[in-house]
Design a protein that fits this description.
Structural class: alpha+beta
Helix content: 10-25%
Radius of gyration: 25 Å
Number of helices: 8
Strand content: 25-35%
CATH superfamily of one domain: YVTN repeat-like/Quinoprotein amine dehydrogenase
Shape: globular
Number of strands: 34
Distance between the termini: 55 Å
Length: about 650
């Protein structure tokens, strides 16, 4: 009996020790709304915690001394973080390791890990600290983690690409924006189920195409105002009705949600030329781009929004109509992605994600004519960059819409970055008009490994994208694309290629359609046999990358647009498609017709809907059926489903 008591006591101690790894022993009830973010401040306002995103560390900053207290190694791609209510623990989503790391702030080290779904992104703790809610970007789920055991209690299916997570002050509701869909899922924490989905309304077409309009997408945050009545959502509007043009396609916006009824307040949306209409010395509207995050003055009278593309701070006076009253141009550093405000409302701290610095801005106070002003030098967040210098340089350019920073402007007047269409480097789920016809925005995953570029295979060298910069983004118009570029401008394309080519930039996403052990499902195995057999898919989608475009080479093994043997007509042309006579970079030797299409890779294709060059197929099954070839015509409906199951499993 005595031995049994000792064993039970030992088990009890072990259980307590395990519990202490994941959560605090004491209960502190938090009473304010919290949103997951890449930068977080404690309640006292004396410490900052920053997830360094593409550097696998979290940095702790002493606010008083403005110095780094610690830099803690964590898993790959730490995207967002959140505090426990008693502020003893910091939880960090490590996106590419599919886990949450737990940091003891007392010990300043990682003390545990929690396995999640595929690519966790946003996360918040419950108001009593018992639960952790994690949005799994690729799985399309929200995990409810029991912090006593460190295990997932339940996965709630919420839909495509859940991004960040916000909890209300009373802890009764969670809000989970969907990155590309313009939707926000509302979850009842007690019932542990979805109770509503808010859809942001498109901004209506206008006769003047240079005025703000389009489909809401790229939802970056969901920040609740201090009074708890409304939330602000920074995002883009993408106009798909006219050919891509820097002044007519991408617009910044901030939508407002009423939280008592969970509906958008349409007449309070902040849009360029309307509520965002601060003029410069020439009395012209200052263009800002890629809104990312928002902080409110503690009294709710002002809001401060960072524009990650144009690298600006926009100040909104909410007490006097809600319009923007100041644009603080060019915050020192590169690519602002997170912002927090001190408890007294006097100081803003801005996370510069590409230069890995902390910028400090004085708000100037709550008065109507007070002006925000940056002070001092930025604080370095990392001891060493994990990216090679050329890759870092290319990544900065990819995310930048700053028209003044580089050897040549990559966009005209700060309008758009590469990431404005390739959201976070990937797809935006939209089909845009071009002079050649409608084009589905492709993913950058494996883009440098899979042969020719563009849907019609009309580019064989990355510098050919000067045509995109000139024709769509409005930059580099002073250069003749048919001639060699100046060395410093050519360097911009070289480093962009280095970024796209780096294996860590766009890893092929794990498929949620496989078994838990990573193996193929029963139906996918049948599809695999059909893929390589009766379906004859291998003819075009073969090799390591499931494409034949890599074979489009000359006698020296170099990619060439002259090799058109691997362009195909499978009957998917759109009535709006137009022939092209080629372009200047290729000396007009690369003409294309609507019957010549490049074969896209199938690796990770499950995550790139819609499909085909014009985005006309919403599912993989539909894309297969659209192949007007005899092998597909001989497949049964069940066989098409089986092939689709196999294709969805490809990683």
């Amino acid at each position: 009996m005595k031995k049994l008591a000792i064993v039970l006591f030992a088990f009890f101690l072990a259980s307590c020790a395990k519990q202490s790894v994941f959560m605090s022993k004491q209960t502190v009830i938090r009473d304010e709304a919290v949103n997951s973010n890449n930068i977080v401040m404690n309640r006292a306002g004396d410490e900052l915690y920053v997830a360094n995103i593409d550097v696998p560390t979290v940095t702790i900053i002493d606010v008083k001394t403005k110095k780094k207290k610690a830099e803690i190694a964590v898993g790959r791609e730490p995207r967002q973080l959140t505090l426990s209510p008693d502020e003893q623990f910091l939880y960090v989503s490590c996106m590419y390791d599919h886990r949450v790391d737990i940091i003891s702030l007392k010990k300043q080290t990682v003390i545990g890990h929690i396995q999640t779904g595929i690519e966790p992104f946003g996360l918040v703790t419950s108001q009593d600290g018992r639960w952790l809610y994690v949005a799994n970007y690729r799985s399309g789920t929200l995990s409810i983690v029991d912090l006593q055991s460190g295990k997932v209690k339940k996965d709630i299916r919420v839909g495509d690409r859940p991004r960040t997570v916000t909890i209300t002050a009373d802890g009764k509701k969670l809000y989970v924006p969907h990155y590309l869909q313009g939707k926000i899922t509302v979850i009842d924490t007690k019932k542990e189920k979805v109770v509503k989905q808010i859809s942001l309304a498109p901004s209506p077409d206008q006769e003047d195409r240079k005025k703000s309009q389009g489909i809401p997408n790229t939802l970056e945050q969901f920040v609740i105002a201090p009074d708890g009545k409304k939330a602000y959502v920074p995002h883009l509007l993408t106009n798909v009705d006219t050919p891509i043009h820097f002044e007519e396609t991408i617009f910044p916006a901030i939508s407002v949600i009423r939280l008592d009824i969970d509906e958008e307040v349409l007449d309070e949306r902040k849009e360029l030329f309307e509520e965002i209409n601060v003029t410069d010395v020439n009395n012209e509207t200052m263009i800002v781009s890629n809104p990312y995050d928002i902080a409110f003055h503690p009294n709710g009278k002002k809001a401060y929004a960072i524009m990650s593309g144009s690298e600006d701070l926009v100040v909104f006076d909410l007490a006097r109509g809600g319009n923007a009253t100041q644009v603080l141009r060019r915050i020192q550093g590169d690519n602002p992605r997170g912002i927090v405000i001190s408890p007294d409302g006097e100081t803003l701290y801005i996370h510069q994600a590409m230069s890995h610095e902390l910028a400090i801005v004085k708000t100037g106070g709550e008065q109507a004519y007070a002006k925000a002003k940056q002070i001092g030098k930025n604080i370095s967040l990392i001891s060493q960059d994990s990216l090679p210098p050329l890759v870092r340089e290319g990544k900065k350019i990819f995310y930048s819409a700053n028209s003044d920073e580089y050897a040549a402007e990559i966009t005209k007047n700060n309008w758009m970055s590469c990431a404005s269409c390739h959201s976070d480097g990937d797809i935006n789920g939209l089909t845009l008009m071009t002079p050649k016809g409608p084009r589905n925005v492709p993913s950058n995953i494996l883009t440098t490994k899979t042969g020719l570029f563009m849907w019609d295979g009309s580019r064989d060298d990355f510098t050919d994208y000067i045509h995109t910069v000139q024709g769509e983004m409005g930059g580099m118009l002073q250069y003749d694309p048919s001639k060699p570029l100046p060395p410093d401008v050519q360097h911009m394309f070289d480093v962009l290629f280095a970024y796209l080519d780096d294996p860590s930039s766009f890893p092929v996403p794990k498929s949620p359609y496989r078994e838990k052990d990573g193996s193929l499902t029963h139906i996918a195995k049948k599809g695999e046999q059909l893929f390589f057999g009766k379906g004859n898919c291998l003819t075009c989608h073969g090799g390591k990358y499931f494409t034949d475009s890599v074979k489009a080479v000359d006698n020296n093994g170099q990619l060439t647009t002259d090799q058109i043997s691997f362009l195909h007509d499978i009957g998917t042309a759109n009535v709006l498609d137009r022939s092209s006579s080629g372009d200047a970079r290729a000396q007009f030797k690369n003409p294309r017709t609507p019957k010549q299409w490049d074969t896209p890779t199938l690796r990770g294709v499950w995550a790139t809907a819609p499909y085909l060059h014009d985005g006309s197929a919403s599912t993989i099954e539909e894309a297969i059926v659209r192949h007007r070839i005899k092998e597909v015509e001989q497949l049964s409906e069940e066989e098409i489903k089986q092939i689709a199951a196999y294709v969805r499993s490809l990683e």
